[in-house]
Amino acid sequence: MSPFVKNPNRPDLAALQSDSDYDAIVVGSGISGAIIANELAQAGKRVLIVEAAPETDRTYEGYTEYLNHFYGQSAKDNQSPFPINPNAATPRGSELRKLDPLETNSSSYIVQSGPYVSDTVYTRVFGGTSIHWEAKTPRMLPQDFKTQTVFGQGRDWPIGYEDIETDYETAEREMGVSADVEDQKYLDLKFRDSYVFPMRGLPPSWLDEQVAQGIDNSQVELYGERYALKVRPFPQARNGIPNPAYDGGKGFEPTSAVASHQIDIGGRCQGNTNCVPICPVQAKYHSGKTLAKAFETGRVDLLSQAVASKVIIDDASGRVTGIETKVYHHVSSPAYKTVTLRARLYVIAANAIETPRLLLASGLRSKSGLVGRNLMDHAYLLNWALMPQICGTTRGTSCTSGIVDLRGGSFRRSQAAFAVDIHNDGWGWATGSPSTDLVELVDDGNKFGRDLRNAIIDRVSRQLLLAFMIEVMPSESNRVTVDPTYKDPLDNMRPVVSFAVPEYSMRGAAYARQFAKTLFARLGAEDHTHYDPSNYGFIAYQGDPYEIRGGNHLAGTHIMGSDPSTSVVDADQRSWDHDNLYLVGAGSMPTIGTANVSLTMAAIAYRSARKIIATLNH
Amino acid sequence: MASPDITSIEVLRSQLAKAIQLEHATIPPYLTALYSIRPGANTDATQILRVIVVEEMLHLTISANLLNAIGGKPDLTVKGFVPSYPATLPDGETDFTVGVGPLSPETLKAFLKIERPAMAPAGKSRHVVRKSDDHSTHLCTLPEDATLRYYSIGEFYAAIRDAIVYLDQQAKAKGETIFTGDPKRQVTSEYYYSGGGKLWPIVDPASAAKAIDLVIQQGEGKTQAIFGDSGEIAHYYRFLQLDKNRYYQQGDSPENPTGPALTTDWSAVWPIATNLKLAALPAGSELYDAAVAFNSAYRQFLALLTRAYNGEPQVLLDAVPRMFEFRNLIQQLICNPLPGGNGNAAPTYEI
């Protein structure tokens, strides 16, 4: 059944400004904000969500506009469905260029102060980056929570896997995860005895099966230990076949598309290959599904086109007294009104770049001085090859399986772990295929007509892209700052990012490149990988070329810990400095291991929601 | 209640085979109307038609489950299973025909008639006598006597529901049951689900009655209510939204929907020929080949469904995505004009 979505808008700014009866203000409508708002509303609390983007896409019609926009774009990059909005700008990889030494590039929304230029993005629309995410939902490994203790790398979490295992289950229910437990028990990952995922695992692609034939039952040796390799399906927050054994035999009902009228679409993934940037049928989870439930309670209001610009603090108590917010009238005009919004408690869930940006713009660096620091993102190294046989590339969802055997192990003392994605969408990410294939076959191959069609089919359906998602540990010099030199049209300071790919990750990348060559050799695949020194992501490491791409898994900028002098938030994501302020999202994560961050971020949002409700009830 | 129409298990099986034929018979008209919409246009009508096609597939599967439950064997490949369009359906005192053509106000009227809630007035027979005066496929006929039709699709199903209860009571009196089918042949929600409807194994009169009620409720509405038990809008009212240019929401009266507005641009539809036959296409032309290719794909689809309904439910998982293939094949036909300027080509469904 499709969730009906109520109209939650509060356009009456004057009344809103004098409304002091909100239990909480949540800044941001992405996954964390949606979960917190919904949990609070279900507990009877009154919530105002402040969203920087317009709310038009809250409805099915708005979502369809994105789709039509996407279909009409010639370059289908990961932001292509989403309209340009200078008042709440979205970073776009297409705007980037390589930096000269010591150069800062402010031509894109995120000011790149180098040395490395990251093409990492997030999306500032209603629902945040959950509209655009790929919906892979691996849990972090138990060892990922204590990398400092076990491997002498990174930081330990103040909580362990066992502390959030139940919250992982809740997040898997909310996001509608399809996976089979038997496929997901590897390394030290464990599940409750009778646990099954809400829906059965999605079928592997034909390409996955072809790769598996060459890889399964092989081994690699690393620092004296042997690791058996196997192609495994990823858990995904996309609707599959409900598992009748779920919830003690009660089963599971998938959540389909959100609309204001019954459309009954998206009950099951149809295998479209454009999960990123947008699922055409909403079989992929996005936070609008959770928000529809929140709005249904009648206790959650929405203020859209509202960019939070300052967190106001009472100097004596350190408590937040309000959020100054700029409400703009139209995306094409910088005209805005400033309002101050008040509630008992404040939750900033604006993502790991925008949350520290807001805090730093408000002059709040925290006593630890760590707001904005320890910025993390997965470092992606792409490797691409042509399979000897037709593999049906471009069929199936973006990615269904991968190799995860090197997500953990004693080698992490020396080099970064990685997970490998087998991409079903061909070389597009690496080379701009298939349009680049077309140009090459016409210009260099002199192909036309039927020959050209056949050559394109032969080329594209043999493409294998392995994306290595390499872990990046927290480093205080990787950071987000603000600088009054760089402002957006609403006079808000833009984020300035300084980032260098740590040596530890580059050691992982160097191994990843060798690993890819070995796999390609086993598969009889012709390696076409080459890294271009003029590319913004180019890095020379120990004399060899690499191109590192951003992973859009931003984390770490309001890091969680057990000591106020070395962390920004506690294990419940409450600010150490301001006791009615919660900073929620992947920014709280002390490490990200080799798990896409959203599921863990959702799990810790449930933890925070419990704490917030208890605090409000106190 | 004794059912005077259906007096034996054999007759019940043959009536359920007709139910399968009936549920399928609406798919070609709905599917063709759906794909006749020009790309990107009429998103509301597209959604409405899409949901209904998906649910007709569900109803088709439920009918197959019913037949399987009582020891029958669904066969969607028998000659004449796919009607020669236009097909004839009962609508109260008169028949009406449903054809394969573009989405238009006239098509919508026929679709509304298919889904319209209609039971015979109290005290009146559920049968209507009509002479078979043409050669079209008549759906919803009584067993044996082709001159007798049911008053409506609702009455057709009501007779089946009564017969199931009656025949099972008779069987029970002899210590037997009519539910002799192998439960493994039942297709359950694992293999098929749509947004608004579930499948369950049919093993007794209660699960059978529940299945028939779902088909009737999703189609015609629950005793003329807009929303069914699960809060879902009946097909009749889904279609009526296209006529009234507005969506229904809970609490609305049939006359006056109060949901969001919608519009249909009847001109943003390919001008395809209605009830086109292969014979009208020049043999050997690309259009002819495309029409044959579609019919062949559709025949394979029906063969896959038949396997799914005969003990291989997992085949349904492969069969459903074939609907995407239909879209591509249909588009080759509907985008191209017929020779002689009689509109564009269309699938012929001559299986």
SSE order and pairing:
The complex is a heterodimer of chains A (618) and B (351).
Chain A: H1 13-17, E1 24-27, H2 31-42, E2 47-50, H3 60-72, E3 111-115, H4 147-151, H5 161-175, H6 181-184, H7 206-215, E4 219-222, E5 225-228, E6 231-233, H8 246-249, H9 287-296, E7 300-303, E8 306-313, E9 320-330, E10 333-341, E11 345-348, H10 354-361, E12 379-386, E13 399-403, E14 418-423, H11 428-431, H12 435-443, H13 449-460, E15 463-470, E16 479-487, E17 493-499, H14 503-523, E18 526-527, E19 538-541, E20 544-550, E21 581-583, H15 598-617
Helix pairs in contact in A: 2-9, 2-15, 5-15, 12-13
Chain B: H1 9-25, H2 27-35, H3 43-69, E1 87-91, E2 94-98, H4 105-115, E3 127-129, E4 148-150, H5 153-173, H6 205-220, H7 235-244, H8 286-308, H9 315-319, H10 322-334
Antiparallel strand pairs in B: 1-2, 3-4
Description:
The complex is a heterodimer of chains A (618) and B (351). Chain A contains 15 helices and 21 strands. With 618 residues, chain A is an alpha+beta fold. In chain A, the strands form five sheets. In chain A, strands 6, 12, 13, 14, 15, 18, 19 and 20 form an eight-stranded antiparallel β-sheet that branches. Chain A has a five-stranded parallel β-sheet with strand order 7-2-1-11-21. A three-stranded mixed β-sheet of chain A has the order 3-17-16, with helices on one face. In chain A, helix 2 (31-42) runs parallel beside helix 9 and helix 12 (435-443) packs across helix 13 (449-460). Chain A is globular. Chain B is mostly helical. Chain B has one domain: Ferritin. Chain B has ten helices and four strands. Chain B has helices at residues 9-25, 27-35, 43-69, 105-115, 153-173, 205-220, 235-244, 286-308, 315-319, 322-334; strands spanning 87-91, 94-98, 127-129, 148-150. In chain B, a hairpin with a 2-residue loop joins strand 1 and strand 2. In chain B, helix 3 packs antiparallel against helix 7. Chain B is globular and about 65 Å long. The two termini of chain B are 39 Å apart. Chain A binds chain B through residues 1-2, 61, 64, 68, 71, 200, 241-242, 244, 254, 256, 260-268, 270-271, and chain B through 40, 43, 47, 50-51, 54-55, 189-191, 193-196, 230-233, 238, 241, 247-249, 259-260, 321, 324.
